[in-house]
Amino acid sequence: MSTSPQVRAFRGMTRAGTRSVLIYRGDLLTGAVTLVIQVVLAIAVWRIVYGGRGPVNGVDASTAVAYAAIAACLQSALLPWQFSSLPMRIRSGQIATDLTRPLGLMWQALGQNLGVLLARLPLAAVGLAAAGVLGALVLPPDGAALLLAVVATVVGALIAMLCNLIVSMVAFWTLEISGPLIVYRFGSSFLSGSLIPLWFMPGWLRSSIEWLPFQAQVYTPVSLYLGQTRGIEALALVGMQLVWFAVLTLLLQAVWRRARHKVVVQGG
Amino acid sequence: MPAIQAADLVKEFSRPAVLPGRLPRLRALFSTKRETTRAVNGVNFEIEPGELVGYLGPNGAGKSTTIKMLTGILTPTSGVCRVAGLEPSLDRARNARNIGVVFGQRTQLWYDLPLRDSFEVLADLYDLDRSAYLRRVGLFTELLDLEDFLDTPVRSLSLGQRMRGDLVAAMLHEPSILFLDEPTVGLDVVAKARLTEFIAETNRTDGTTVVLTTHDMDDVERLCQRIIVIDSGTVLYDGDLSRLKERFMPHRFLVLTLADRSIRRVTDMPYATEVETSAVGAVLPYPDRSVVLRFDPREITTPELIARASQVYQVDELSIVDPRLTDVIAQLYDGLLT
Asked: Which of A38, A243, A256, B21 is the most exposed place for a label (fewest CB within 10 A)?
């Protein structure tokens, strides 16, 4: 992956992903409208829940409201409705020509997914702008928190891409994966903390969620940005992200080895 | 060095066995029993650079499986294949740059994107420099008349347009070897003619080696000098197209249009047998007045037969028809003459 033709091939796939999103303007527009409604509702609900009261579990009203708004926007970029074209390509058999490309299939899929993610960033920006207009956004407490949040967002996005791809690869064995996808989609929204901040979850649930890769996607970056997690704990969260990134990379490789074996030996 | 080499190539697939008795599916879930089928069973051939070879066989004969091994999609169970000196399944990425592939039944283009965008993505995938890319796309646009739909999303293209796009996609990176798996399936006569013409032209001018699998014998007759016929995973015939006809269908047809339409049967023609007009497989000008005779040129020469026919009957028109490849191949598949 260090040689330049490989990098260029990867960028080509990214471009294909970006364009295949941007070409459907109507879909993007609907997505933006939906997200704005979601952000507005989340802000309204959390403001009523707090109703002028003081901090709950150490989280004050403005932080909770900002969290809800930012998390919804981040989630919309990380978890698009169709988060990989791989299952479709497996079903239609297009995977055969994909395997005759000079770039490995996993890099092709990741490149495409990265392109989709990049193309959906403007959508998230629209959601954030709406939150800003409603006065729901707050600034991070200091530069260090901002820096950590940026790093955590990038690593979180990588983790989300790996998770999405690994789940999509179930299609190599089952062909039809809408069922697992719906479970995954709901589970991921809940467990990543994008529906409800993890601060408000009961202790036993929180400690189990800490063992899953989902909180690294949304909860970690947003909580770092808001300065809710500071100091050594903040570094631990980012460290945990990096561990998950490594683990998921290895897992993807293992799954792909099995899938490739199935395809090239048994003919899919 | 041959462009393509297959030596004792074998591909086996194993599937969960279907169990006899009650609840076969449920029991299959818990059973580890598998059954093995040999899709390709010891195939041997060599193809020289610049050849245009028809790779034929009935459905399920093992054609696509062979192509998939040659393109690196499948790993052979045993035996060796080499494409431009490389072993495709071990060297997939390098092999990819030498070959172009078209699977007629599915597209390799990006469904949502305009044709031109697909080409640009391919230019990135194959690391083409800008000038080479523009030259190739310009050339193909002219040869295949792509101008009108270059900016149309692939999902809105007609089948003929899409096929042309797929062919360009396979050839953009100037591969020296082209695998075409049923490239003309479902196309109308005009679209098919344009495509076969283009394939022949590419083979002639660039010296591209082409392996073509198809069920369309017109394509084969128009394009291939050499054919390889396989069935049940083994090679039945490998050689010249014309020799195949000589070997399996040595006879020709003489079609007579007689002036006297009351003559329904021709009896006094030695070395020739009257057959049904449908045996010719061509449209006859006057079916109600036509008589078809089948003869073997090794027994009686064509001029002799014509001379004899004109002596005996008053002939308005006559023509000589060769057996169609379709019939030859059908005989071969049936195993009647092997």
From this structure: B21
